[in-house]
Every structure is written in structure tokens, then in C-alpha cells.
Write a structure and sequence with these properties.
2 copies of one chain form a homodimer. Chain A is of the alpha/beta class and about 450 residues long. Chain A is built from 11 helices and 16 strands. Chain A is about 30% helix and about 25% strand. The longest helix of chain A is centred in the last third of the chain and has 20 residues. Chain A is elongated and about 75 Å long.
Amino acid sequence: MLLALLLLAAPVPPDVASRLVGGALTSGVAYSRLEELTDTIGPRLSGSAGAEAAVRWALKKFQQDGLAARLEPVKVPHWVRGEESGEVLPAPGIAGHPLALTALGNSVGGTVTAEVIEARSLSELGQSARGKIVFFNHSMTTPAGYGQFVELRSHGPSAAARAGAVGMLVRSLATASLRSPHTGMTGYDPEVQKIPAAAVSTEDAELLHRLLQRGAVRARLSLGCRMLPDADSANVVAEVRGREKPDEVVLLGAHLDSWDLAQGANDDGAGVAMVMEAGRLIASLPQRPRRTVRIVLFMNEENGLAGGKAYAAAHQAELARHVAALEADSGAGRPLSIRLHAGEGGRALLRPWLSALDGLEIPLEDGDASGADLGPMSTSQVPLVLVHPDGTHYFDIHHSAADTFDKIDPENLAKNSAAIAVVAWALAEMPEPLPRPPQPEHEPQDAPRPAAHR
Amino acid sequence: MLLALLLLAAPVPPDVASRLVGGALTSGVAYSRLEELTDTIGPRLSGSAGAEAAVRWALKKFQQDGLAARLEPVKVPHWVRGEESGEVLPAPGIAGHPLALTALGNSVGGTVTAEVIEARSLSELGQSARGKIVFFNHSMTTPAGYGQFVELRSHGPSAAARAGAVGMLVRSLATASLRSPHTGMTGYDPEVQKIPAAAVSTEDAELLHRLLQRGAVRARLSLGCRMLPDADSANVVAEVRGREKPDEVVLLGAHLDSWDLAQGANDDGAGVAMVMEAGRLIASLPQRPRRTVRIVLFMNEENGLAGGKAYAAAHQAELARHVAALEADSGAGRPLSIRLHAGEGGRALLRPWLSALDGLEIPLEDGDASGADLGPMSTSQVPLVLVHPDGTHYFDIHHSAADTFDKIDPENLAKNSAAIAVVAWALAEMPEPLPRPPQPEHEPQDAPRPAAHR
């Protein structure tokens, strides 16, 4: 009786807790894997040689870890950056200035030389934009500003083109800068002209703003980027097959692609390393959990979401048996909490299964637990769970050349891996799955996701 | 009697104190001047069009401020950067990586492709460096590390060449980085081969270090820089002529040149703006001070010190009548103290004259008060004074593309200007000059100054 009570109070066998948490905190595998991914493969933009090398690498690592792994084909956009530069042209009494800029992902290339006008919203453009380079400025200073201003990046080029502009610059969506521009996906409205679009560093945004107080500013913008034909790529899918209910799936996701400017250590090499480590640790337990733990390394999160869409399409019939999904794509800061988006009572059901994380001070809470690659399955009411890391410095390096391995703290990476492993095992082992959330999230699949870290 | 005591206790007339401090804190002139210098002229490397524009600009501003201003000719090195790039070459199992690098000032250009070896000191190079690119790594994390490791930058190329190396990379001397390399002057021993030399960002230094743990690393280094024939330039010298002892001089210095990667807002546009503002405020007083206040905007501090040397040479006969010298070249952080290097009792003599700064909490203390441009006059035992700003973030941006106007805090710039104005006026007005320091500083004029902010 006492034993039964104890088991009820602590449903996770002590050896499982210690293997998952202790293993993550002491193995160093996630950190060394991430180093290998970032240093031996490097940038992994969809369609690039790096992306394909990463697919092969991940497949092999999963197999080495004892997971059943496979590739699921995805057709991805293949955008290449080429050479890029820009400058403020000299004018009487004003020196020219080079601009620290970088093309937005999916931008068309081209060279434009025109007067610059500054705007602070998509809606304020009028006749004055005709023939100009529209410069979207904003006041992002904290991570919350990303959701507020990302529409300037994603919809700015077409808003500017609709008003007759010939080019677009946007202030980088960044919380720190040392003259470091941040790229990110943009899109074009098929109805309007596609114009070259780039992000300038926050310093250069300040410069443009100041120079415009002095008078007219002309700038040159030269982007060598172009879109090549779609390329063949893949999501990498690996499983620890459930011992009792193999058709019920706990999905752990991260994205294997990265921007091209850096190694993509934080976005999203870290997430890849975490979910791989969770899979490795669960696979190494003496007994497989009740349900299947499936790890999906999505391709093309950054500039198209083709992997997320392909997964949802290929697995449509199976999504009702996805008992939970987690995406690790929020960096590798200290894990602050586990966020759950499920039906009523879900939190109370899950909580006792997470006691192994008490020592790490990672409480369970309700909250936004979405992930970009999980968006396409949002109509299927899959319960979502998120290990939520401290994001204070996430946008210091996000989508910039500074997203490098040295920024990763090994201890925090390990703690995130531990939390994901514990949550995934719990969701796969609980006798009954969590109640599904009451309504589908009302989010169009193709719209930019303002609050996400894309 | 009471009045006499009051005057003794507070030798600075209240209206002088309020005009200098209040003027600096409310005029906004230093800040708008700095904006004008950085935005309308921009980078000012010796020999460049920007440097010459800055000379003309400063002369005109001094004249507008009512100072007697002139140019004193200086022959300066004329080094140009050109295009530059570098990469780690791909190897079996290892992707190639672009390197964020920038040529060291005065480096020769050229393209070298060779294996990289890592070193941590000038002395450890042996036969293994032959035919290699020597990569000097170090562990600078705080401003104090600059003095400790700057020899790797200044003497590294010749140390490497002496060991047979064909190229040199040095980890940037930086306290923060977002993939932002820091340039800085290097020099060549005339006895050995001049080899191309560049700084890599701290992130790229970490990458090289990690890759070298995996095996051999080959890199390509392509520098388009070259040294052109020396150019004609000038120090800009302006004076508020002393009313009683015009031949006794209080020198306020800063340097007009900057590196070419950025606007040189912090190094040393800020110093230029401060000493100009001190001069403007002193010139606007109803009565000129007893001695001459001379403002010298030196040319070529960054890559040659030609201006400092030319000034010391041209004014050799007069240096014994330089009663004090101050250089503002430590950034524009909050002023923490006034440092004095003078003869015994100097501090007690000066202190009552600085009471106007009590409200700003800028105490007088002994300490290193040197400045790079003042080095060549060090044999003349000129008392040195320094308004010492908080340098915590100085090396975050120093010599990098991020040394831009937006980094300047207007309030701290104004406080520094106020402090310099008060100190300069005091030194020019005190009945007797400060005692000179007992011994000349034993510092060879051409050696790199480890503790300085060059």
C-alpha cells in the first residue's frame, strides 16, 4: 500500500529520472554534437550543400544512437545570397557611408540607386514612396519587439513596392548590435513588383535616420541574391518505438536548416542537439516507453516551412494519434519553465511526471507552446509542450553572422536536453494521453508567425 | 577678511564655474559637433579625404568659436585598406568557413594560403611556424587585457615572419563581439620579411582554436591593403591666449584621425568634441585666464603618432613652459575621476580649484594620466592630467566597425567636457603652476604603449 502510494506520488522510476537528467547533465553529448554540426558542417540554408550534409549527418547520428531513422522527402526553396553591398552616396557637404546590410531571405537581387524615405509602419506609405528606397525604421529594444515589428520585414517589400518603391531597407530586428545586420525571411505579394530588400544594422538605421534630418539621402543597394529552382531535401525522422502503443506519437521537433550568415548554433543547432540528446537518452533506457517518441528534424523552417508543411501533409491521417508535440527552437538559454497547451486538467495530469525536474527549478505552466514547424498541424488539436528557455539574449545574435557555437552555454544546453527528455518520456509513458486543447488555434498556415522566433 | 577667506576657499569665481559646467551640461554643442564630424565627414584615417575634411572642419569651427586657430604641418603615412577576405578552406569531413577579419593598420597586402598554427605568445614560435599562417590567440576578457596582449598585434607579424611564417592572424583585442573584428596598428621590424597581418573576430578565433583540435587547418588570407607615399596633413592648433602669461601653456589634446572601419565616434571623435567644447566655453568667458589654453587636435595617432611627434619637435623649446597637458582619448563613458601626474604637492594645490566638479562627483586622484600623443613630450616633465571616463565598454567597439555615433551618451559627453573645461581653466588660472613631476617617464617614444587606448 505504501509502495503503491509512493509510486502514485512519483510515477517516474528513480532510475529513469537519473538516467535522463543525470545523463543529459553529465554526458556532454549534446554539446559535442552541436560543435560537430556547426564546425564540420556550418551554415545549413535549404538547398545548400551544408543542409544536405546535415541531413546525412543527422541520419547517421540517429542510427548510431540506436534509433530507427529515415528521411522523408521535402522540396525546398533554394535561395542563394551572392555578393551584397550598399552605401549612402556622398552629397554636397555630406560624406558617403558604407551600409552594413544583408539581403532578406528570399529577396530578389538587383542594384538600385534612389532617394531614401523613412517609414515606421506598413500603412503610412503614400505617393512619396514612388521611385524611392523605403527604409522601415522601428524601436525594437527587447525580445517582445520582434513580434511587434516583424511584419516590417516580412511584408515591407511588397508594401513598399505597392507604393511604387524600387527598393526596401529595414532596421534589423535585434536587441544588440555591433554593426551586425540580421537577415530573416521575407515574402512577396504575387500581385506587385518584387523589389530588392535588405536589413541594415541598427547603427546604420540610426545613421539613415540622422542623415534624413539633414536633408535628402540617396543610397545604393546591390544584392547578388537569387532564387534557384526548388531543391530536393528531407526531414530527418527518428523513432524510439513505443512498447505498448507504438501508433501513438510524442513528437520532438527542431529544425536542421539555418540561415547562411553563420553556423546556426543557436537557431537552431541547439534545438537539434537537444532533441537528439533526448532521443538518445530515451533510447538507452532499459525499457522503451509505452508510446513512440518521434524526433523530427525539419528542413526549411527559416525560409519556407516546407518541412513542417510536408510533415503535416504526409502524416495527416496520423495526427489524431500525435499525443503531444514539442519544438525546440527558442535558443539555449537557461530553461525557465515547461509550457503546456492542452485541454483542461492537462497540467495536473502531467505535473507529477515532471518531478525529476524539480531540482532544476523548471516549473510547469500554461502558456504559448507553439513552434513554427508545428503550425501546419495546428488544426489537429495536438497538445503542445515547450521547454521555455530564457530568451533575453536570443535576438542579440538571431539571424546574424554572430550565431556561432561560442555563444552556447554547455550547462544550459544540457539542462534543456534534460527537460526535453523528461517531458518526452513522461508524455510517452503516462497511462492516458493528455486531453487535447478544446479548439484548433486560429492561425493561417502561411502567415508569418509574429511571436515565433523565425 | 571674510571675503578673502571665502575666495581662498573657493578660488573659482561662481560665474566661471557656472558658465563652464552649466554651459557644457546644457549647450548640447559637443554632441551636435560630434554628430556633424561623424555623419558629415565620417572615417578619418591619416591621408584620407576624410582626414583632410576633418582638418578643414576643425579649423573653421575653432574660428567660429572665437579662438585663434592654425594648422601645423605633419607628414603622415597613407595606408589604404582595399578589399579583404579570408576563409578556412574545406578539408575532408570539415566544411570551409568564411573568416570575419580585417587587416591590421599598416599591414602589407597580399594573398597567402597556408596551414594555420596557433600560438599564445611572441616567444613560443619555433621551426613549426615555417611556411605557416601564425594565429595568435589570447584570453582578453576585460579592458585590462588590452595592455597585456596588445604586443601580439603590434609585434606579432614580425615575430611570426622571423620564424618563417607567411601570414599572421591575431584574435581581436575586444571585450565584446558580434563577429566584429578590431583593427589597430601593427609595425614591422625592418630586418624581417613583411607578411600580411589581420585580426579575426573573437568568434573566429574560437572557431580556429576548435578546428585545430580536430586536425590540420588550412586558411586563405587575402588583403588588398597597401601603403601609399606619405601624405601632407596637419595638427589643428587653437588658442585662448593667456591674459598675463601667454607664453605658459595648458595643452588640451585629442586626435582628429580615426580608423577607417567606422565613424570614429568614440575613438576619438568624442575627445575632439570635448576639448573643442572646453575651448569654446573658456573663450566665451568674460575674462581670459592667466595662461594660454591651447587645444591641439593631433593627426595620425592611430597609425604612426606623426602628429604627436611633430608637435613635440616643433615646440621643443616651448615645452618647459607647458604647465600641464591633458589628452582626451579614453572614450566618453561617465567621468570617474581626474587623474594627476605632477610633482609633490600638486594634488593639494589643484584640488580647491576643482570644487565646481564636486556636484558631478569627479574626485581628484593620483594616477596614470598619459596620452599617446603626449608621449613624445614625456622627457620635458610636463605635468599630465586626465579626465578618466568609465572604460568598461570602451573595448567593445574600439577600432571596429561599431564605433559609431549612436554609442555616445550625450550626458556623459557633456560631463567630460565640463570636467575638462574646469580643469583647463584652473590650470591656466592658478597663481603658480603645478610642480613638475620629479623624473621624466622612462618610455621610449616609438614603443607601443601597452596601457594606452591606441
